[in-house]
Amino acid sequence: MKARVETDELGRKTAIEACAEPCAIERGMRVLGGKWTGSVLWHLKDEPVRFNDLTRMIGGASKKMISERLKHLESHGLIEREVLETRPLGVAYRITPRGETALRCLDELRQWSESVLPQH
Amino acid sequence: MKARVETDELGRKTAIEACAEPCAIERGMRVLGGKWTGSVLWHLKDEPVRFNDLTRMIGGASKKMISERLKHLESHGLIEREVLETRPLGVAYRITPRGETALRCLDELRQWSESVLPQH
DNA sequence: CGGCAAGGTTACCAAAAGTATACTAGTTGC
DNA sequence: GCAACTAGTATACTTTTGGTAACCTTGCCG
To answer: In chain B, at which end, N or C, are there fewer CB atoms within 10 A of the end residue's CB?
Structure first.
């Protein structure tokens, strides 16, 4: 991420250390950036939450979206799926220690958008 | 973001303070989350950069994307467009104080993905 | 038995996002 | 005149998202 541009003796310009595909910022965004992804993780921060409760909490998102986001987060090891031996059977999702490390930047983002973005 | 689910005396569940469309996290993602958006802002953090230099620095993105992202960031007041009276005429983009407030969370994200995400 | 809750899956569709390539118009240096 | 620079636009296309709605299985309650 120290990309710069240099000009050679003939006036031609070349990028040095150009930032190709996977800058850290881009990679992070791929993991946390999708619609609802941050919200889903955020809602798990205090306690495990069951699938249907999540869909109720995150009003605008469909079951399909929640399901996709949960799989996505699980595939990155940020949350865990846990089957509850209740009747009827239930499933809860809980944040992992690895997932908790992401809360810091989600919280920064939250603070930033609360303080800087127009209320709107 | 304190959404929870309550059960009434008949066993029916209702979401309290459900998180509809614009949670702070979602809104922040809309501003910083698009592909290349974070990278573009990041590359402006130290000094103004000219258009074509940006496209060279960010190897994977087309001019159209850079142009769109710059307009997007400008529309949110995070960067400024500045015409340089050089020959040939040039344009430089510089980060605004408002834009600088976003660097904190971009940096958190960068640190997070560097330390937590598989090198890949 | 009918209906409901749980935890999803499936099919389908629309719209957004991103890519690739070409092109403008003006300037400068070789 | 040719090439390369400036800062973008225009066009066309493909891919990825996101969203709706219906459906499924198992088990419980009345």
So the answer is: C
Residue A21 pLDDT: 46
From the C1' of C28, which residue's alpha carbon is nearest?
Answer: B88
The angle at the Cα of B60, spanning A109 to B58, to the nearest 5 degrees, equals 65
Q: Convert A60-83 to b/e letters by CB count within 10 Å (16 or more is b).
A: ebeeebbebbbebbeebebbbeee
Domain ranges of chain A: 35-116
Interface contact B59-A19, CB threshold 8 A? yes
Residue A21 CB contacts under 8 Å (≥ 6 apart), including other chains: B59, B60
Q: What is the pLDDT of residues B45-97, one digit of tens each?
A: 999 999 999 998 888 889 999 999 999 999 999 999 999 988 788 999 999 99
Residues 78-97 of A with CB under 8 A from B: none
